[in-house]
Structure formats: C-alpha cells, structure tokens
Specification:
heterodimer, A: about 525 residues, alpha/beta, Aspartate Aminotransferase, domain 1, 4 domains, seven-stranded mixed beta sheet, four-stranded mixed beta sheet, 19 strands, about 15% strand, globular, B: about 450 residues, Aspartate Aminotransferase, domain 2, 2 domains, 17 helices, about 45% helix, transferase (chain A), serine C-palmitoyltransferase activity (chain A), EC 2.3.1.50 (chain A)
Chain lengths: ~525, ~450
C-alpha cells in the first residue's frame, strides 16, 4: 500500500468522521451581525438600483432600459421590474459566474480559466484579449499566462468547482481514452433516434445491465441527460390523484418533473424524518383535497447528497417512515453515486440501507463517471413501464454511444474489474481529501455546512457583497471556486461551494487552504470564531 | 420593511388535521390505506414494444444492423444528412476528446463552459446569419421545453399548435402561462383563436401590451410530418401582436436551399423571434441550441432551466456539431438536392401503396402513412406494429408510431401511423427497395 499522505492527522480525521456519522451536522446559525449587514447590503443595492432606474428611465440614459427585441404591438420580452435583479445585482458580479475554461487542459484539477472583462459597465463580458480589447500590458505571473494562439488571457487555477469527484477528468488519458476514442471507429457521435426508435445499441443494454447489477436492482434505463431523467420520469410515474412528498431542498429537475406530472405536491422540512412522518400522516388521513378520497399512491422524493448543502440524506430514517406508511421512495443520487459508500454504490451503501427498500433509484453519469446522462433503476416491471411511457425514452434521443463507453469504462475502474486498484484508490482519496479539507476549513473558524465523507462543502458567506469578494480574491490566487447567491439559495444564505476530487493531492489542498485563510481574513467570514466574522 | 416581508413569508400547508378525529381513528385510517402499485401493468401491445425493441450492433448511416443479425435499410432515424458517421465529424470529435476528455463535470455556470461550447454558439449564430445569437443546451428536446418556460411566465399567453411534440407541450405546461390550442397546422383555426383573444381583450379592457404572447409551432411536425405555413403565420403574428417560437429540430438541415429550415424554405429570414433546434437530428451530434437576438439568448443564461441546472454538454459533441455545420456550409446545396431527389422517389413509391394514405407534406423527409380505413385503435396499433416487424425481417427499418406516441398524456389525439424517413446516404436502389418491401408487407396485413 502507498504511503498515507494524511498519516499525521489520520486519527483526528477518523474520529471526526465517526462522530459526524452518528450525529446530525452542526447547525450554523447566521450571526445577528451578518444577518443585519446582509439585509442592509440588499437594501442598499436595491435602493441604488431603483434610483438609477428612475433617472435612467426619466432621462432615457443607457441601453439597459430598452428591450431591443420589442416590436411594435408586442409586449416587451422582459419587463423592467422582472429583470431588476439581473440588471442591478447580478450584473455587478457576473464575472464570478459562467467563467469559460480554455483549451488544452487535459487534467481538470488544473485548468486554464479564460479571463474576461466588461467593456459596457458590466452589462456583458468579453474575453480579455490583449490584441482586441486594448488592455494594459500583460505581465506574466505565477497564475496568469497568455494563450499564444488566440491572445486570450488565461488564469491557471486549481479546480475546486467541478463535480469531478473521482477525478476521471484528470487521469482520463490513462483510464478511459483508449476505450472511448476507440468507440468512434464503430459508432457515430449520436444515433439520431430515441430509445424505442432505433436509438438503443448493445452498449446501452450492457450499461443498463451493469447499472442494475451495481445497484442490486432488477433493471435500469439510461437516458441522455441527468436533468431530464428526473424531469421526464416523474411525470410517467405519478399523475393526478397521486401525491409527491418532496424534501424542501430538492433539485430543480425534481421540481420540474413534479410540476409537469399533475400530481399534488407537499414538502417536508429538509432531511427531517419526523416532519416527513407528520406530513404523511396528515396526507393519508385527510386524503385528496376537497374530495377527501384516498390518494392512489404517495411517493417520497429525496436526494442522496444535497448539492447546495453538502449534506447527505438521512436515508435510514426516511426509509423506515416510508415502510411504515406504505409509501414509495424515490432517491436521487446525482451527487452520491460513485462518490459515497465503501465501493461507490452511493447513499444506500453508505447508510446501510438495502437498495431493495428504495423503490426507484435515480442518478447521473455527469459527476463521478465523467460522462453525461442519467439512469433510473428499479424492478423490472417499473422499468418496462418507463421504457414505453417516459418521455426521455420515447421522444428524446438516446445517450451517445461514445458517452456510453466512457461510463462503461469508468464503471469498470470503480468496480475494480479492470484488474487494477485505481478505483479503490480513487474512492479512498476522495474520502480522505474531503474529510481533511472539511476538518481544516472548520478549524479555520469558517461556517462549513454538511457532513464528513461528503465531497461538497459549502462555506457560508452570508453577505451578498462577499460573494464577489470571495470569488475574486480566490481567483486572483489561482483558486476556481463556485459561489452561490439568491435565488439559488435563500436570501440570507449566500455561500461558496468547494467540491473536492480524488484528483486533488494533499499539497493542492494545503496550498488552497493557505489561500482560503488569506481570503477569509480579507472577507471576514470566520463566523465560527466571532459574530463579526 | 424588507425584513418584515421576509419574516412573514411562511408557507401554509394545505389541510389541517380535523380536530374531531382521535388518534385511534387516524391510525385506523392509516392502516386501512393501501396504495396502488407503483406502475400499472402494461397492455399486450406495450409489452410487445418493450420486448421487440430493436438493439443495434452496427450503424453506417445507410443501414443499421440489429442484434438478430439483420442489416436493414435505414428509414427509421433522423440522421438525415448521414452526419454522425462522417469522417470529418468523427475526426473533430476525436481531437476534442483528446484535448478535453469526455464529460464536462459541471453546469455552464460553474466551470462547465468550455471553449467548444463557446465556439459552437458563435459558429451557429454565424450560420443562421441575421445578427442572431445562439445558446447551447445539452439535450435536444429539453432545449424546447426550457426555452418556452424561460420566456412565458404566469399571466402570459401561449397559442400552441395542438400537434406539437412533447418537448414544446411540456414547456408550455411548465411555464404556467395561459395556453390556448389551435387545430393542427390550420391557419384559419389559428385566426379564429386569435380573434377570440382579441375580443376577450376588448371585453375585459385588457391591454395586449401587458402580456407576452407567443405562437408556438414546429417547422416540420415530429408527429405528423407536416410543414409549417410560415408566410401566413407571419402575417397573423404581425396583425395580432404575437411573437413566434418555432422548433426547427426536424426542419433544420432538411428544408430550404442551404438547409436552414422553414425561414430558408419560404425566404423569410428574421421572421421568427425564437428558434429551437436539436443538434441530434441533421447534425448527428448531441444537444440543442436556441437561436434569437441577444436579449433572447442572454435571458436564458439565467432562466433556461435545462441550461442553468443541468451539466453542460460534453465538449466533443460541440466540436462534432461545429464540424457538421462546416459540412453543411460546404455541401449544403448538394445535400439538399440529394435529399429532395430521394424524397421524390420515395414518395412515388409509397403513394402507390394500397390501404395507406400519406398525411405528411410533400417537402418533408419525415413521411407519415396512416391506414386508409379507420379501425379500432388497439387493432390499428397491432397491424402497424406487425408491419414494422415484418419490414425489419426483410431488411427495412421503419417506425410504427402507434404505441409510444399515441398514448402520451399530453396529446389529445395523434393518429398512429408508419413513419419513414429518407436521408442523403441512401441510394436510389435503397429507396426503391424500401418501397417494395413496405408495399409487400402492407399487402400482407391490411
């Protein structure tokens, strides 16, 4: 066995991990100071925006107020009040989002982010290019360079933002390239048909069998897009007369699917099994609204790891409640499949729940597997039904055979059937890296959400202005982080989100931690130590 | 005041426990309740769809090989231009794979925007011309549903062709707008609906400028093979103050001199405000784009659900689509001519088949044939399925659309039929052979 990079802190990491597995994650309440300044921040931003809008409109200054597409006789495509948030808040910090990644990166943990500038007062961003944008003279530094072919400014960054949990984007050339590129000889990029109309290849079938075996289910269905897997399966599973009981923090794809289904929707408090029980009792006793007929069926929808909270599902208790009330359980493992559990089998394995007790398992291949698309795994009758009824199978084109191969290959690595221990090492590295990072970030006095063993760690920023400050300061130091503000999270709960990968090394993380510490001092976000950060 | 507003924003849960029920009664009610099974059991014909589903083991554009070892002429999928097997496209994909790897590992907003996505958006805008811009989604059908829902909101008005495919109808449903339907591809009926709306406006004293209004249609209808009557539609939208949202997933690469779709076909560039196009058909790649002006594309970067909340497309599929656009630019004219020629021969073949009527347009490479005699639905489906299976045995891949499309919950009525597609890779001999096989099989079952 290789030398353990964390041997010096191993004991502490393990004890924290064990504590976290048996205790709920720490509750971080927003400090009164942060709450006050956050509201104040929004009040100032909104007030300034309103004043600028008022003068801008009355004096007709600037192009922000005129909808270019407005044709005579049509309502404007976007109303001023509707895009107030975009124009007056989002545009100020839009450089922190949608950062483009430049060519020639190979390994994703070290990536070249293309720098952008705004030439129109932050209304739009263009690539920072020395030749075209009239920028001050470029000076090479440790993190920035110039793309010789395009003249774009690049920033070499450590990737703490992508869902590259098992690091397949880093060692792709060694682990997957041969198989995936080889598939191009036989198959095209796409099949030009949906699953039931000549879009199914033997590779799709092989993958479905593999997924079903991996999860201990009878059958599975693979579709072209993770988002659509939820958005098209849920309407096929439930309809009017059924009830969906959904965690309040479920992903938009579940929300979209639930809305499109026509079923009634209730929510329960995030990850709270007793609230779930209360909601279920109420629903079963009262039946459908007005008519009080019994529900035809009830389905509970939860996620394995909540992507904005870094918290994993309290699956055992949720499962017990579902069993007790004879309701179905739908588990979205978009972030947990491949990343959690001793052998990467996701939340069920981690929580010690038999997959037979979860009626429908859903997951995506975008994250841990470095591919694209999603799957649904369930018993054979359900999958057969979905094959003929779910829009993703009967109307939407099938998964690309090339991507199929990527997933097959990465599955084999994870399962160790490729004859190496790369998969096992990846899983171990991911867990160790995540726990080390979480431990050190918490030590720093930051408010870090979520559980140990989860590769997602949100660091609370609270103030809207700190979103931009944290992101820009990190970016300056060569750290690519994701920051999230309203409306993706509640208005008080702006945060930065770090996603750890098996591809990171301890040196990477130590370096990142040093820089985050600097940034934490600049931004004053050590709320664990002081109410004032 | 703001603080107060947020503090009072608590959601009420509908329906409280009735105080009259005791715990024992509640427990009895809970014990009594038995849910139905998760999914209903399948009908015999649906079982058949699942069990008889063809698995491909090889594909050359012109033909497809099934796991039963049959090599069949491809009249089944939407690879109209044979793009997915073109050497240039594969080469571009291979190069991109070597540089970027396979997946993008994140949504566009969070380091999932990779150079090929930017390149594709620029190249697509260039290809469509007219100062248009484009935005890329990672799945073709969700391009349509996300785009519709991004612009139309509660209180807006959508006038939708009732024959639109699932993606657009789902989008209309998710938008929560007021939706009105008009008869499939019937411009007189559309005028009737628009007049009604106008009359309502007058009655309610509603200003038409307060509401965003869209007419939602398809270039070539996926479920009918009919072609949009764009000139009349453009007149109507101008007269009544509507915007046009056209899905050109099947018409892009198949209609017009350059293959740009219905605007190209009718010579009306710039007449459509929002166009959604799947890259999965004529371009033989994966994903979709929405084309429109800057405001249209910019808005979706924050509000297109499929754009914001889904992982971005694999970089190599974007490069494949860019290569496909290059081919269309170079060979578009001759490709369109070949397609038209093959279509003409195919139409001559299938129009002579006794017992079937063609419902699709003369210009559409997606041909729909329905039974002349109207019979009971289940029986009709069985006949069509039998034709599909028999054709396959003799080496022709066509699609019987009865089972999976006809019964979708969003459709009021879609007549089941046989769908045949033509492409540029097939030879005249293939087309004639296809016609002959189909004729034979139809005679056997009808």
């Amino acid at each position: 066995m290789d030398e353990d990079p964390y041997s010096d802190v191993r004991e502490r990491m393990e004890s924290l991990r064990q504590y976290s597995a048996t205790h709920p994650p720490p509750e971080h309440d927003i400090t009164w100071f942060a709450a006050f300044t956050t509201y104040l921040g929004y009040a100032v931003l909104i007030a300034f925006g309103r004043v600028r809008d008022f003068f801008g409109l009355t004096l007709s200054l600037g192009s922000r107020y005129v909808s270019p597409a407005t044709r005579k006789g049509c309502a404007p495509l976007l109303q001023l009040r509707e895009n107030f948030y975009n124009r007056r808040l989002y545009h100020r910090i839009q450089d922190c989002f949608n950062r483009p990644v430049g060519g020639g990166i190979g390994a994703r943990c070290r990536m070249n982010v293309i720098e952008r500038v705004s030439l129109d007062g932050n209304k739009s961003m263009v690539f920072a290019n020395q030749d075209t944008n009239d920028l001050p003279n470029f000076t090479p530094g440790p993190y920035n360079s110039l793309d010789p072919s395009t003249g774009n400014l690049l920033r070499r960054s450590l990737n703490l933002g992508s869902y590259n949990y098992l690091g397949f984007a880093d060692d792709w050339n060694q682990t997957c390239k041969e198989d995936v590129v080889g598939t191009l000889e036989k198959w095209g990029v796409s099949n030009g048909g949906c699953r039931v109309e000549y879009g199914t290849t033997d590779m799709h079938r092989e993958l479905e069998k593999l997924v079903a075996d991996f999860l201990g289910k009878e059958d599975s269905l693979v579709l072209n897009m993770g988002f659509n897997t939820n958005a098209t399966t849920i309407p096929a599973l439930v309809s009017r007369g059924d009830l969906i009981v959904s965690d309040t923090l479920n992903h938009t794809s579940i929300v979209n699917g639930a809305r499109a289904s026509g079923a009634a929707i209730r929510t329960f408090k995030h990850n709270n099994a007793s609230d779930l029980e209360a909601v279920l009792r109420e629903a079963i006793v009262l039946g459908q609204p007005r008519t009080h007929r019994p529900w035809r069926k009830i389905i509970v929808m939860v996620e394995g790891i909540y992507s904005m909270e870094g918290e994993y599902c309290n699956l055992k208790m949720v499962k017990d409640v579902c069993k007790k009330y004879k309701v179905y359980l739908y588990l979205d493992e978009a972030h947990s499949i491949g990343a959690m559990g001793a052998t990467g089998r996701g939340c069920c394995e981690y929580a010690g729940v038999d997959t037979a007790d979860v009626d429908v398992l859903m997951g995506t291949f975008t994250k841990s597997f470095g591919g694209m698309g999603g799957y649904i795994a369930a018993d054979a009758a359900t999958i057969a039904y979905l094959r003929t009824k779910c829009a993703g199978s009967v109307f939407h084109n099938s998964l690309s055979p090339i991507v199929c191969q990527q997933i097959l290959t990465s599955f084999r690595v994870i399962m160790g059937v490729d004859g190496t221990d790369i998969g096992a090492r990846k899983l171990r590295a991911l867990r160790d890296n995540s726990n080390y990072m979480r431990m050190r970030l918490t030590d720093m006095g930051l408010h870090v959400l979520g559980n140990y063993d989860s590769p997602i760690m949100p660091v609370m920023l609270y103030n809207p202005t700190k979103i931009a400050a944290f992101s820009r300061e990190c970016f300056k130091r060569g750290l690519a982080v994701v920051v999230v503000g309203f409306p993706a999270v509640p208005i008080l709960m702006s945060r930065a989100r770090l996603c750890i990968s098996a591809g990171h090394t301890r040196e990477d993380l130590d370096d990142a931690l040093k820089k985050i510490e600097e940034v934490a001092d600049i931004c004053k976000i050590r709320y664990g130590w002081s109410s004032f950060g | 005041m703001i603080i107060w507003a947020f503090l009072t924003q608590t959601k009420k849960r509908p329906g409280k426990f009735d105080a009259k029920l005791s715990d024992r009664e509640k427990n009895a009610l809970i014990a009594d309740w038995t849910p139905v099974s998760l999914t209903p059991s399948l009908s015999a014909s649906e079982e058949r769809t699942v069990s008889s589903g063809k698995v491909l083991t090889g594909y050359t554009g012109r033909t497809m090989t099934t796991s039963d070892g049959i090599e069949a002429i491809n009249c089944g999928n939407f690879d109209f231009l044979g793009m997915s097997i073109r050497g240039e496209v594969k080469e571009a994909s291979r190069e991109a794979l070597e540089v970027y790897g396979c997946g993008s590992c994140g949504p566009r907003g969070f380091y999932g925007t990779i150079m090929p996505h930017v390149t594709l958006e620029e190249r697509f805008a260039e290809f469509m011309g007219q100062g248009q811009q484009s935005i890329m989604y990672s799945d073709g059908a969700s391009t349509s549903s996300s785009t519709v829902a991004a612009f139309a909101k509660r209180g807006d008005l959508l006038v939708v062709d009732e024959g639109c495919f699932e993606g657009l109808l789902t989008g209309a449903l998710l938008s929560r707008s007021n939706v009105r339907h008009f008869k499939h591809n019937d411009m007189d009926d559309l005028r009737r609906v628009l007049e009604e709306i106008k009359a309502e406006d007058k009655k309610l004293g509603r200003d038409a400028l307060e509401q965003r209004r869209f007419i939602v249609v398809e270039g070539i209808y996926r479920n009918y093979g009919t072609v949009l009557d764009l000139p009349r539609l453009v007149d109507l939208k101008g007269e009544f103050g509507f915007r046009l949202l056209v899905d050109e997933s099947l018409s892009f690469g198949t209609l017009g001199d350059r293959g740009q779709g219905v605007t190209d076909l009718y010579g009306l560039p710039g007449s459509v405000e929002i166009t959604t196009i799947s890259l999965e058909n004529a371009l033989g790649s994966v994903g979709g784009v929405t084309v429109g002006d800057e405001e249209v594309t910019d808005h979706q970067r924050l509000s297109g659900a499929g754009y914001v909340f889904s992982a971005s497309a694999c970089p190599f599929v974007s490069e494949a689509a860019v290569a496909g656009l290059g081919i269309m630019e170079r060979e578009g004219k001759s490709m369109m001519n070949t397609l038209k020629k093959n279509l003409k021969v195919m139409l001559k073949e299938v129009d002579g088949i006794k017992g079937l009527t063609r419902t699709s347009d003369d210009r559409s490479p997606v041909i729909f044939l329905v039974l002349k005699k109207e019979i009971e639905c289940e029986e009709e489906k069985d006949i069509l399925k039998a034709i599909e299976e028999a054709c396959m045995e003799d080496g022709l891949a066509v699609v019987a659309t009865g089972d999976h499309i006809g019964k979708h919950l969003l459709y009021k009525r879609v007549r089941a039929g046989i769908r045949i597609t033509v492409n540029v890779v097939m030879t005249e001999k293939d087309v004639k052979g296809a016609g002959r096989i189909l004729k034979e099989k139809v005679r056997m079952f009808v």
